[in-house]
Glucose 1-dehydrogenase
Amino acid sequence: MKHKGKVALVTGAAQGLGLACAERFLEEGARVVLVDVQAEKVKQQAERLGANATWFAADLSEIDSAMAAAIVATAVDHFGSIDIVLCNAGIIHTADFVDFPEDIFDKIQRVNLKSPFLIGQAAARVMIEMGIKGSIINMSSINAILANPSAVAYAVSKGAVKQLTAVMAVALIKHGIRVNALGPGTIATELVMNSVMASEEQRHTVLSRTPIGRLGEASEVASVASFLASDDASYIVGQTIYPDGGRLVLNYTVPVSE
Ligand SMILES: NC(=O)c1ccc[n+]([C@@H]2O[C@H](COP(=O)([O-])OP(=O)(O)OC[C@H]3O[C@@H](n4cnc5c(N)ncnc54)[C@H](O)[C@@H]3O)[C@@H](O)[C@H]2O)c1
């Protein structure tokens, strides 16, 4: 039980990677707070997970300091602590660069970048006050490194999350708080199936650039999140770890079975 007695807060936890990570934290002994904009769905998931899970409905595209403090307070009020924070909620929109809408650019930065900044800040304040040597994990992406011409706002937000993670890590390690990030490749979640894997041509493009020859599973990201949150990762500070099936180290392309 890697996380026995710990309290973990996960944003974007109604489905996909967030839910898989929350379930893994729970399996490893943590009590979990699930945060999501899909109020009914996150409530159902928390109820399904039982008494060691609770939920908070929030639209992180409206995030401000007060909302961030309220989210963190849910963990402390309900379970008495906050030891692990996974800022996972994220959205993507694809459009040609010259047509990319300004309002959607802004919204993506608020959900993907501003919410980990403010929730990480609020959590760190509480951890420092309570003397908790916690672990904060932000959700980046291989798109922190790779330029996708039709997802400018997403790529910018994920590159910024990588650097946010580095800055937070250096600022908070003196309090014993470790901050790291995850940068998954293409993982089979609803976000991916409805966007990058929506057409056969896109499926071929993704797989031809994925040496392992398949998409990742949410559980394969949850394993890394659980490791980063645990004492097994006690000397890992400020890193973005890429569970990507070899995507970032590939130069050319690989054959795809049709
Ligand atoms: N799936 C992948 O291949 C992949 C790869 C790299 C990075 N990521 C990142 O992992 C994270 C999770 O992705 P996923 O594939 O599970 O996506 P998903 O769409 O299945 O889940 C995202 C969750 O975030 C929630 N969310 C969206 N907007 C929100 C808002 N305004 N306020 C609160 N919650 C909100 C959604 O309701 C949903 O539950 C995202 O940050 C994504 O960018 C995913």
In short: The mean pLDDT is 97.
